[in-house]
Amino acid sequence: MRGGRLTPLRRKVLTLLLEAQAPAKAYDLLNLMGQEAAAKPPSVYRCLDFLLEMGLAHRIESLNAFVACGHWGHGHAAAFLICDSCGNVGELHAGESVRRLAAEIEEVRFRMRSAVIEVRGVCASCA
User: Percent of the chain beyond pLDDT 90?
Assistant: First the structure.
């Protein structure tokens, strides 16, 4: 698995993210873990850091929340569409946009580690 070990606690955090109906904050995940012996705030944050590093999850900065990656094959860039009305968040592959951004970044000799694009607006259901 991409060079990392999916421990039981990491698997639990990933499962919770996959089952979540909306982006989850770290303390929301901690509450959902129930009586897990190792479920302490630092443990959950370490699990989230691992999942981010492995490309299995993304952090939505403006919401200070996490989601499971919906496009595992696209590398380390994601575009999120965040509805200001209902709070729904969708992940967009945005392949061509990410390729163009990466090309522009390379032109200035910057080495990109990761990228998260957040687009705020109104979803089709709320429009």
Answer: 60
Q: What is the pTM of this model?
A: 0.82
Amino acid identity of residue 74, one-letter, is: H
Position 113: which residue type?
Answer: R
Confidence of residue 17 (pLDDT cuts 50, 70, 90): very high
DSSP string, 44-100: HHHHHHHHHHTTSEEEEGGGTEEEE-S-GGG-SEEEEEEETTT--EEEE--HHHHHH
CA angle, 34 then 48 then 11, to 5°: 60
Handedness of CA 32, 20, 92, 72 (dihedral sign): positive
Chain segment 27-44, per-residue pLDDT in tens: 999 999 876 655 788 999
Q: Domains in the chain and their CATH numbers?
A: 8-68 (1.10.10.10), 72-121 (3.30.1490.190)
Instruction: Quote the distance between the C-alpha of residue 78 and its chain's center.
Output: 8
